[in-house]
User: Fold this.
Amino acid sequence: MDSAGCVFKYVVFSPESEVEADESMHRQALISLHELLMIEAMEWHENLIKDPKYKDHPEPLISWDLDNAIATPLSRDEVRNLTSTDKTDIFERLALYACFVNPPYRAQFKRGKMEAQSVFLEWCELLGLNEIDDVSVVNWVEGLNTGLHGYDEKISGVESWSNYFDAGLEWWGVWCLTIWNPKRRTISALIASTTD
Assistant:
């Protein structure tokens, strides 16, 4: 995914069997996702400051105010939409595949559309989206007005709960989902935010 130019970051965990599958578990997955983002940002910074002209560049900080994040559970039909490779318009709500293959500079899969679809479906399997009728998916950016993933005047005042979303809110859009798969007992979290 990285070498093709996909912009999604994700984590997958298997919680202990006695852990209750509630909203707090979804929020814990988001905390782990933030830790991954910060590790990657710090690695980027360490490489950047090796160049003397960037030695004073400030360390990155990704704000993460989960108290202000609003959990919006998705319906079965919405979860089905997530795994569809027929949706190719990034302006269509919950068109995950479209955004997977169409970041601002397009993902480049060596074997074209067939490889893109294959990698996407393998990724969905890894995330736990394969048992559509059993999984529960929570959207954490539903209320953020991107103009791409649904605009609703009733919730347009929702503030972004992380500066990670700033780039995507400019144009391309933002994603942040958590996925609980009870059959496999996995919780995953994905995120994306970018601009041109």
Remarks:
- The helical segments are 23-48, 76-83, 96-101, 112-127, 166-170.
